[in-house]
Each structure stands twice: as C-alpha cells, then as structure tokens.
Amino acid sequence: MYDSSTTPKWISILSREEGLETAYTQNMTATLIASKNGTEIIHHRLARMGTMAIMPAAGWNELESLCLLTGSLRVTYGSETSVLYPGDKVVAAPVHEHVCIVAIEDSEFLYVSSAPVFQSYQGLVNGFHELAVKISLKDGYTASHCERIRRYSLMIGCELNLNATDLLSLSCGALFHDIGKIRIPDEILMKPGKLTPEEFDIIKQHTIFGRDIMDSPENPFLNIGSKVAEQHHERYDGSGYPYGLKREEIYLPAAIVAVVDSYDAMVSNRPYQPARKKADAVREIASLSGQLYDPRVVDAFLKVVDTFADED
Q1: Which of 30, 72, 198, 213 is 20 to 30 Å from 47 by CA-CA measure?
Q2: What is the DSSP secondary structure assignment for residue 59, as one 8-state letter?
Q3: Maximum CA extent, the chain
Q4: SS3 of 116, please?
C-alpha cells in the first residue's frame, strides 16, 4: 500500500477509494478528487440504469466536461442521443439545455467543472436521501418499490426516445411518485382490509400532495418530476384520478409510471393481495392497452419487460 506520509505537500496521490469528499445515492458515488481556484474534478461511479443530470442555470457561463473511463453511457441532450464508450468525452461551455446521462452498464467517469459545484451537488444528494427515508418509514415496501419504478420507467423512456427534459422528469418523478403518501394517515395507508369510499378518496389525495411537495420552494431539486407525481394514476380512458385526464392529455412520463406502477403492484406482495406471476401481470397489462394504458407505453413495456428481472 502506498505510504502518503512520504509524499511532498505539492502533490497528492490518492488510492481508488480516497478523495476530498464523497456523496452517495443508491446508484451513484461522486468523489471530489481535486479542487483549485474554483476548478473541480469529480470521479463518478454510476450503476446500471443510474442517472445524472446536467442542467442549465441562470448566470452560469462555465466549462463542464465529462470523460468516460469504463462502461457505457447514454447521453441525451435536447432531443438528440449519443452513446459514449471509454475514452469518449462530453464538453459544454456552458450547458444551454438539459442533459440526461443514463448508465447502460456500470460505469466510471471524470467530471470537470471550471466553477465549484460539489457542495451544491452534495446538498441535492442529501435532500434526495432524506426524502427517500421519509417515504420508506411511512410505507415499508415503498423504498425498494420506488427504486424499481424508477429503473423500469427509465428503460421504457429510453425505448421511447424521450427527450432529455422528459427523461429527467421521468427519473425524478418515478422515484418520488408516492411521496404524497407521507401526508396520508397511517391507519388508512396501512389498512389490511378493503378501504371505504371515503378512505379511498383520502388515498387519492396523495397525487395532489405529491405535486405540492415536489413543487415546494423547499425542494427545488424535485420540481422537474412534480407532474409525474400528480398524474401517475390517470388512465388512458379517462377513468383515473385526480382529474380524469385521457389519452394525450396525460403527460407521457406519467403514463409510463402508470404502467410500471401497476405491473410492480401485481408482482409484489401487498397487505391486500399476494404477488402474482410475472407472465400473468404482463398479459393483464397488454390486455388493457388502449383502455387503461397508453398503447405507446405498453408496446415499449413489452419490449423491455423481460429484462426487468435482471434489474432486481
């Protein structure tokens, strides 16, 4: 092992796991490895189907660059998509529109910014973590459920070639689609038996609560996903809630979450029903295409659903 005590002060040699600071999510590790005169170099590890966003900001006129070390990344900027392989680079000076980065496989890359970003980055990560803990404490199955919904939804979104803004909205909105449940009383949310009509009306409010929480100035990093939280129980034929939207009135990322959320509910054990076989759930989703679910989403779901088990 390298002995750093013998290294002169003007140079630093760091092992694979070392860095100045580190921020974690379930899918990503970001380590600040160098910072000088405002410039920062951050090492990222992004797990398969993990996402990273690069977004424009008012008054921002800095250089941002990414160099892929291992793995492969799907990079969507506006409505254009490219796939990066080791040695490929992305350079923007500055970023003018949303960029959504999705790991096709476990990947590592270096990200360089000509102005400090890590502290705000760390704040976003901590905010995500705190909200995820709140949801999991409220509803025991939700933590793993929400992460599955995010991964599965993103796979469908990529299949449908959504633009960068919609992909980021989908990833954030899918992960926190049930955040409004933290405002639902436990005796209703965890009730093992059938809900009364009055109780179900209260449950329905979680979509509005979710939108409000994500649109709150306290959570600016969640704003992009609020429409997904609000509309993920709308149905193609207008039978959903909270507004009874139909067909293309429903935001497409929300229509994606509607399919994936229903599928995951069918194949998971819940207080009110045992898990069903995957094949049965897939057949039911397919049979309801054009009725409850957007046919475009169902077609994409059927193309990728066989890989879902590999994502668990």
Answers
A1: 213
A2: T
A3: 72
A4: coil
